[in-house]
Amino acid sequence: MPISSGHLRTNETPRPRAVSRRPSRQRGVALILVLMLAVTASSFVILSALNNRASRETAQRMSTAEALGQARRALIGYAVSYANGSHGLEKGPGRLPCPDLLGGSLQGVAESVGDCRAAADRETGLLPFRTLGLTALTDGSGAPLWFAVSENFRSMASGVLNSETAGDFSVDDVDDVVAVIIAPGSPRVGQTRNSASAYTASAWLEGENASLGDNHFTRNIEAANNDTVMIITRGELMAEVQKVVAKEVDKALASYRHDPDDDDDAAGADPDCASTDPQCDDGLPWLATRTASSFAAVVGEGTTRLARLPLVELDTAFNAEFTAVWSLTSTGTVKLGGSEPPDENCLRHNTCTQNVSHGGGAPTSTPVSFPTPVQGTPTAPWSQGTCILNRNKDAAFALNMSCATSYSYTVPGRSLRRVYRLDLGGNTRLVASAPGARRTAEVRVLGSAMWPGGVPGRISITDLEGTKIIGGGYLEFTTLGGSDFIALLNVPFDLEVWTSLTPVDRHLSPGALPPWLFADRWHESVLLRYTPSESPGYSGASCQAAGNCLTLRMRRPGDALATDVHGVRGIVVLPGPPLAAMAAPPTAAQTRPSTDLTDYVEGLNSSTTTSVYERRDPSSSFNDQIQPLSP
User: Fold this and answer.
1) Which residue has the higher pLDDT, 120 or 301?
2) 343 and 227 both lie in a single domain
3) Which of 91, 180, 283, 607 could pair with 148 in a Cys bridge, judged by C-beta atoms 3.0 to 4.6 Å apart?
4) Predicted local confidence at residue 282, as pLDDT
5) Same domain (yes/no): 85, 206
6) For the segment 539-564, what is each residue's pLDDT rounded down to a tens digit?
7) Is 348 inside any structural domain?
8) What is the pLDDT of residue 221?
9) Is residue 517 domain-resident?
10) CB-side exposure of 235: number of CA atoms within 13 Å?
11) Claim to verify: residue 481 and residue 351 sit in the same structural domain
């Protein structure tokens, strides 16, 4: 019988059933997944740690950069505002505080003793954050900021400080650095930081930054050095300081222009002007030639082109071609002395006749007539006159004038010289500039009503034979009689450099400048240009109507076109530090002092004929600062 497919044959051996392998494969996959998850988790942990570390380092770098930037801004602000009167009137802007060298109970205060000024190895210390008006600044690692200042720029230094003053420091390949701010970073191997080492540079700084007294620093960060350094160069500092200088000059010129003879009423009208033109005297001073010497007075010489400020420093003698006449018959006390005293009449009157003995012991004498007026002119027989001006704010008058000159003459056998000196303070007035003339100060008094009561006056004579004084005398007075008169005229007096111990009072004299401008010799570099319509005694149309205004061309980096500002009445120009030579375009290094304008200003500003001037950001080929005059 056939065997069905559903049954086994009796003589067949049963085949073993196949065993399924799926569970093993699943376990392998699961193991791989577990391993992948472990790797992923480990990678996540590692990456997270790396990211956290990178984030911390980024945050520390940002914190360090912010602290350095804040310190840098505060230091420049301190330098710019240094001439606010709290540091003495003869120290101008640009000075930086000394570092904190001693610490003690009040950390963050600048060194205030001679150690910082005198010792070269004391240029580096902690940042004087309290002196700068800051809270304590630290870098990203929590370390306090350090600070070094060039000796020429220290606040206690006594020398001149202006754009010609070079910085002593070098930072890698950068020279002319005036200040360095350093963030120490975390400690390096061998550095121990604690209260005992708080002012030990080597515990916080590395390499050249920790080496004191050599004026060398570095910004190179390497394994052994993690200092982060920020610098202030002379050019960067002076770009801000010169703005202060220009504004002071602008204020003085604005004051001068609106009342050059100091007698306007409350409405600005001058009593010497016609009612139809009440401000007829308004105008800027005649400028001094750019090649004028740095003598204490630089007088205007009839120019309006790019030239120097005309100025007088109070309490300092300057050349003055003055004129003096007087007749004081009924006032004062006369005192005479010497082997050949002058005639009293020659003290009471500028013109007189006196008998003068001949030489060789002869008994004869010659009557000598002393001419009128007394003159301070460098033309024989007169000598160059000199004057000294000063102020006493507590007196009824504003300006004291002391002027001297001498008259040379001969009699048989003798060469003689008479020196005149007038010390006057009563009824001093300013006389506004006129076409072709400068502003002057004068005393012009007739009778007792015009001489302030109690104000002293003195006229002195000294007679000399060679260098030997043979006679002299003086007339002192505090009042004048009804017919007495005295006049001291034509004393040049344009812009005034104040030398009082009190701050500048611009109401006492239009054109007053702070003493630091002269002490730091800014007056030798400040240049001024204005339009003819602003000149003394001008009565024509404005520069806009006349079409002779100046143009100021302004350009910033990245600007495709410059912006021209028209209608400018005048400009103050301050040359920046001397520029180095350049290969392209070929440009010689600027050398100063010089009579060549290109050694001071650049670009359009160096032209002697232009009416277009330019202002742009400082660079290696341009660093002039320009301030348009206020309206």
Assistant:
1) 301
2) no
3) 180
4) 85
5) yes
6) 778 898 888 899 999 987 777 788 99
7) yes
8) 83
9) no
10) 15
11) yes
Q: CA distances (Å), 470 to each of 16, 339, 348, 421, in order? A: 155, 6, 20, 17
Among 30-44, 404-418, 608-622, which stretch is predicted with the lowest mean pLDDT? 30-44
Mark which of 462, 493, 524 sits at the end of a domain: 493
Q: How far lies 356's CA from each of 183, 336, 409, 622, in Å?
A: 81, 16, 11, 66
What token pair was written down for 305?
A: 């082109």
Higher pLDDT, 595 or 1: 595
Please check whether residues 353 and 452 belong to one and the same domain.
yes
In this structure, the answer to whether residues 218 and 74 fall within a common structural domain is yes
Q: Give the domain-ending residue among 217, 234, 251.
A: 234
CB-based burial label for 84 (10 Å; 0-12, 13-18, 19+): exposed
Residues 327 and 197 in one domain: no
Strands (E), 439-541: 440-446, 457-465, 468-477, 485-492, 495-497, 512-513, 527-530
Alpha carbons 432 and 173: distance in angstroms, whole number: 54
Q: What is the pLDDT of residues 356-406, one digit of tens each?
A: 999 876 678 999 999 889 999 999 999 999 999 987 655 555 688 999 999
Label residues 236-245 b or e (16+ Cβ within 10 Å = b): bbbbbbbebb
| Judgement on whether residues 346 and 481 belong to the same structural domain of the protein | yes
Per the listing, tokens 């028209």 go with: 566
Give the burial string for 48-69 (b: 16+ CB within 10 Å, else e): eeeeeeeeeeeebeebbeebbe
Q: How many domains does the chain fold into?
A: 2
Indicate if the pLDDT at residue 573 is higher than 70. yes
DSSP letter for each residue of 430-464? EE---TT---EEEEEEESGGGS-TT--EEEEEEEE
The type of residue at 87 is: H
Which residue in the block uniquely carries the two structure tokens 């009924």?
A: 330
230 shares its domain with 323: no
Cβ contacts of 586 within 8 Å, gap of 6 or more: none
| Cis amide leading into 99 (omega within 30) | no
Domain limits at 190?
Answer: 65-234
Q: Taking a C-beta distance cutoff of 8 angstroms, is the pair 599, 588 a contact?
A: no
